[in-house]
Amino acid sequence: MSKQITFSIDGVEVKGKEGQTILQAADEAGIYIPRLCYMEGLVPHGSCRVCTVIVNGKPQTACTQPIAEGMTVENDTPELKEHRRNIIDMLFIEGNHFCMFCEKSGNCELQALAYRLGILSPKFPYFFPKKDIDATHPDIFLDLNRCILCGRCVEASKDIDRKGVFDFVGRGINKKIAVNAEANLKDTNLAIADKAADVCPVGSINKKHTAFATPIGKRLYDVKPIGSEIEERKK
Amino acid sequence: MSKSKRVIIEPVTRVEGHGKVSLLLDENNKVKQARFHVVEFRGFERFIQGRPYWEIPVLVQRLCGICPVSHHLAAAKAMDQIVGADKLTPTAEKMRRLMHYGQMFQSHALHFFHLCSPDLLFGFDADPKIRNVIGVAAKYPELAVQGVMMRKYGQEIIKATAGKKIHGTGAIPGGINKNLSIAERDVFLKDIKQMLDWSRSALKIAKDYTVENLEKLTPFASFDSNHLSLIRSDGAMDLYHGNLRAITADGKKIFDQVDYTNYLDYITEEVKSWSYMKFPFIKSLGPQNGWYRVGPLARINTCDFIDTPEAEAARKEFMAVTSGKPNNITMAYHWARMIETLHSIEKINELLNDKDLQGTDLVVKGKRRSEGIGLLEAPRGTLFHHYKINDDDQIVMANLIVSTTNNNEPFNRAVQKVAADHIDGVAEITEGLLNHIEVAIRAYDPCLSCATHAMGKMPLKVTLFDYQGNEIASKTKE
């Protein structure tokens, strides 16, 4: 049995197990730390920075930082909320996110997080970048207009599907998801049952012919804000 | 060289969208030409290209905030063909119909009570300070409340079927994404009697107004025209689905029971340099004679009967005014619109009592096609949606002929008629001219933002040009 570790989040004592990250221990304790790129079952890499918390006075990503005895973690503070809002705001304006006709609306983690953080309108000017659409695959529709470069599809395809269909290319503002083929998505061995087809937090990787099947009111975040499912674990 | 002057009215108020009117006078200050310009451009047909077909019913409804349901359903009907759903399940078909009748009910109520009633209740020439919805609320508070409550009822039906009151997601290719729960149904049944009563009394106002003022209204902005609408296979009015029927001003059939997927064989559009709104016409008659009217007046004229008892009785009364011949009186649109309002609530009542709405079989699919055409009768008239897709499921072609676009030439005719009656030898823009042109255009309940797929407010500006093209007068109403 792994060793129990006691630390605190926003002054509340939390007991976790040795080897857990701050985010894992917080989840078990029913404390929600906002996150985007992190997904249970995939190797965390701390790229989106939304889960940044203050650990003993220093910023760390909660999804990668292991817990340690006696550490103090700040999570739900006005300053961190503001940082998170800015990150989300920047993700919105760096892509082309039109929630009003996006099939992921209501089930989208980016949209849900924006609502949870109280973002009602964009703060920065839109970039309106030109992004690619790859509709060639018979079952999957890839729309890079909505990609937030979380890397979940890259991780899932590499580590779980063992295919390596997706990867990053380019740097900085030109960084984007590319497919492992000479031409298009249809030329890869991506299958609809692959984990990679199921992990996108936004409307970038979509299963074709299935859109809007869930009515408004029954979608994932229609009734309760994102993170509620974690907070409900609190004893 | 002939000499002429030009009058422009911009913007036109209490219609949805933004337009302007220009009047060209000859050297004797008689109206030589009247043009109703639509000056917005939006380009939906172009920018949806590349998007996946399943997104379109949700995307294109953003054309409009007044009757998005019409676009949502017309696009969904086109996508039904794309996914090979030739016959929807009873639950899907009836849920969509319920959504559509809810839409028709709320849109007609909005127009009648809030946009046109000031003209009817206070007279065309009344002070614009009173002749508005606030004036109606002050003097006829019960009517203003009825308008709000009827609109709310329709909007709640839309919410129960589409998920949201504006821009929902209910209709999906091949069906619908929800049924109507017993609890939802019972909420609507509770108020149905009230809605029927208010629809009857609104119909009475429109009918009495028209009949009492028939002498004045008959020539007002009126002209003979062809009429076009969808019609059920037995000739009944059907607002959601049917075949195309076009008739002449005196009731002769130009074509009948035309499968609407062949609409391009019968109807085409002309582009004119001075308006962003295209001019559709019936091919066999050509652009000069082939233009037609759509909307409530056209639908009452084209149908053989209405399949709900009270609306059918009202239709018979309506047709009796013109001895059973098509009614070409522009102002009769209001009366026709209220007949349809009553029809819609009768249909809603029928549907709410139909157990199919609680069914769970929601979607069907068949053999995929690369082209889909969806038509329906929107509140303002026949709405055409036509799409082609590529092998990757992306839109490669879209053609939308929006209800108001069909009425483009009639707008111009109505304005010409009114202007000719008001400008007679004196090159000035009178309040009477402004008011009467507005009233004539408003009879059609035009939605100009939809028609050009554009958005914006719709204030009215009139400018008068002399025969040399010089601006001699201009007036604006906000």
How many strands of chain B? 16
| Share of helix of chain A, binned | 10-25%
Radius of gyration of chain B: 22 Å
Oligomer state equals heterodimer
The poorly predicted ranges of chain A are: none
Rounded mean pLDDT of chain B is 89
Write the element-wise H/E pattern of chain A from the N-terminal end onward: EEHEEEHHEEHEEEH
What is the second-level CATH architecture of the largest domain in chain A?
2-Layer Sandwich
| Annotation field: number of helices of chain A | 5
What's the main sheet of chain B like? 5 strands, mixed
Number of domains of chain A: 2
User: How would the global form of chain B be characterised?
Assistant: globular
Q: Give the helix/strand class of chain B.
A: alpha+beta
What class do helices, strands and sheet pairing of chain A give?
Answer: alpha+beta
Question: What do these coordinates show?
Answer:
- The complex is a heterodimer of chains A (235) and B (478).
- With 235 residues, chain A is an alpha+beta fold.
- Chain A has 2 domains: 72 residues, Ubiquitin-like (UB roll), CATH 3.10.20.740; 123 residues, Alpha-Beta Plaits (2-Layer Sandwich), CATH 3.30.70.20.
- Chain A is built from 5 helices and 10 strands, in the order ββαβββααββαβββα.
- In chain A, the strands form 3 sheets. Chain A has a 5-stranded mixed β-sheet, covered by helices on one side.
- In chain A, a hairpin with a 2-residue loop joins strand 3 and strand 4.
- The two termini of chain A are 22 Å apart.
- About 1% of the residues of chain B have low confidence.
- Chain B has 16 helices and 16 strands.
- Chain B has 478 residues and is an alpha+beta fold.
- The longest helix of chain B has 33 residues.
- Chain B folds into 3 domains: 103 residues, no CATH class; 161 residues; 106 residues, no CATH class.
- In chain B, the strands form 5 sheets. In chain B, strands 1, 2, 3, 15 and 16 form a 5-stranded mixed β-sheet that branches.
- Chain B is globular.
- Classes of the chains: A alpha+beta (235), B alpha+beta (478).
- At the A-B interface, loops of A face helix 2 of B.
